[in-house]
Structure formats: C-alpha cells, structure tokens
Amino acid sequence: MEERRCLDGDETPGIGGCTAAGEEVEGEPQGRCVDLTSFQLHDLREVEIPDDLVELDLTANRLSELDPRIRRLPQLRKLSLRQNLFDDKGVEPISQWKAIAGLLELVLRDNKLRNIPDVSIFKSLLIFDVSFNEISSLHGLSKVSDTLKELYVSKNEVNKIEELEHLHSLQILELGSNRLRVMENLQTLTNLQELWLGQNRIRMVNLCGLKCIRKISLQSNRLTSMIGFQECIALEELYLSHNGIQKMEGLSTLENLRVLDISSNKLTMISDIDKLTRLARQIILLL
Fold first, then answer.
1. What does each C-alpha distance from 140 to 23, 98, 177 come to in angstroms?
2. If you write DSSP's letter for every residue of 60-71 in order, what string do you get?
3. Domain enclosing residue 88, as ranges
C-alpha cells in the first residue's frame, strides 16, 4: 500500500503537498502531489507549487483561470480541474504549455465548457474527462491522442457520435445523459470494453461489429427491441432498464452474460436465456 506524508516546510495553513513513497511505477516520475480539493480557492496566489509536482488536484474550488506556474511542471502527469468555473477561454492556455506535454490524465469535469478544448499537445494522454459541461458537439476530439483509453463526455448536450475513429486504444466511452439518437461511428473502437449511453434518445441498437465489449448501458432510452447484441459474445453486463422493450430476444449467444437489468420495460415474460448459465445466478430481472 502506498504511503503518503505531508511536505516539510509547508507554510500555508490547511494546504499541503504530499510525497508518494512505495514501489516505483515504471515510466512515471516519482515526485510530489498536491490535493487542494474543496478549499474554495479563487486563485492559487498563496499556494506553493513545487517544481517536481506529479499530480495536482484542484477539485471543488472557484477557479476560472489557470495559474501560469502550472506550465512549468515538466513532471506533471495528472491534473484535475473538476468542479470549478472554467469556461473555454479559461482553459485555452493549456493547449500551448509544452512543458506539461507528458500529461496522462486531464479532468475538466463539471465546469462551464461549451467546446472540446484543444489537448493535442498531450501525446500520451490516457484519461480525458469533460463530463457535466455545456458541450454540444464532439468536434475537436479528432485532435486527441490515439493513446487515449478512457473518455468521459456525459451530462452534456451532444447530439452526434463523431471524431472517435482514430481512438483504437479506447477502453471506456461514457456518453450518458446527452441528446444522442443514433449509435454510429463506433466500428473502429475495437478495444472498447465499456460503453455507457444511458439517458439519451436512442431507438435502435447498432454496435457496429464490436465483439470485445464487456459492459453496455442503454438505460433510459427509447428502445423497443433487444436485437443488436448477438455478436457481442464477450458481453458480461447489460443494462437496459427504463425503455419500451416488449420481448426478450437476441440473447442466446451471450454466454458470458452475468448481469442483465431489464427493469421498467414492457415485458410480459422471460425467455431466450436458457443457454446463459452464468446469468442464472446473478440475473437482475425487476419486471
């Protein structure tokens, strides 16, 4: 288990950096992390920012502009600006900060963004989160590094799935609570493991030939049929509650399925699950 201790010499009451001690992670610098979650800061003028910072968490503050000192943190790997007041202009400078180009995780969740910010400078980015903003289009994702493994754009106003074609390494895609009507442009995401599309306006399942996917959520959409999952032979969890599904069908090939939620639909009987031996013990059928 990783041990963490406060930095010596911290002169700011209630605000401290941390040093991580433990096994060295191959390929990642061993430096300090600073967690300023819920300090309600309007700026970072009174905060010391060590040059060897690896992780900076500014969650739940009142920030609207980026502190220019962040651009001089060459070892920075994780930056969280979650739950602040950043708009498009407020995060714009980050696209030019070459010193932090090694960033692996960028969290901009719960701000005031209207567009996908330019993060093309981060050539090794693994996790990108812009959920809970005011984004109406995925335009700009084409510039995101193809190293990306997790993408979160839930709770926005997106109406079309696009500009994902190059993300061959993507494993988790979260687009729940948007305005999507069609499942499309997913066929190149051959390594996708989890797809979350709950609370949209989707009427028909189209997984574009994705056979390796393990978790799918289409809760609270406008589905009337379960047809479309037949080729997802690796599927383990399927969430279809709160739709208009009238018949259980297209499940017989899903032999790895262990969780099925079809509550709050229009089903009158359970069928097409005889071969699903893993499902028998853990099925969620709240009709």
1. 37, 19, 20
2. SS---S--GGGG
3. 1-127
Q: Rounded to 5 degrees, what are φ and ψ at 114?
A: -110, -15
In a domain, 265, yes or no: no
Distance CA 243, CA 218 (A): 9
Place 199 in a pLDDT band, splitting at 50, 70 and 90. very high
Decide if 234 is inside a domain.
no
Cα distances (Å, whole numbers) of residue 239 to 264, 267, 271:
11, 15, 17
| Mean pLDDT of all residues belonging to the chain | 89
Look up tokens 């190059």; give the residue. Answer: 166
User: d(Cα 194, Cα 264) in Å, to the nearest integer?
Assistant: 23
Residue 32 lies in a domain: yes
Burial class, 90, CB count within 10 angstroms (exposed 0-12 / middle 13-18 / buried 19+): buried
- Domains: count for the chain: 1
The whole-angstrom separation of Cα 259 and Cα 256 is 9
Q: What is the pTM of this model?
A: 0.89
Residue 8's Cβ-count burial label (10 Å; 0-12, 13-18, 19+) is: exposed
| Model confidence at 26: pLDDT above 80 | no
Helix/strand/coil (H/E/C) assignment for every residue in 9-24: CCCCCCCCEEEEECCC
Cβ atoms of 188 and 182 within 8 Å: the answer is no
pLDDT at 130: 99
Q: Is 53 helix (H, G, I), strand (E, B) or coil?
A: strand
For residue 66, the domain's CATH number is 3.80.10.10
Tokens of 148: 């990306």
20, part of any domain: yes
Q: Is 173 exposed, middle or buried (0-12, 13-18, 19+ CB in 10 A)?
A: buried
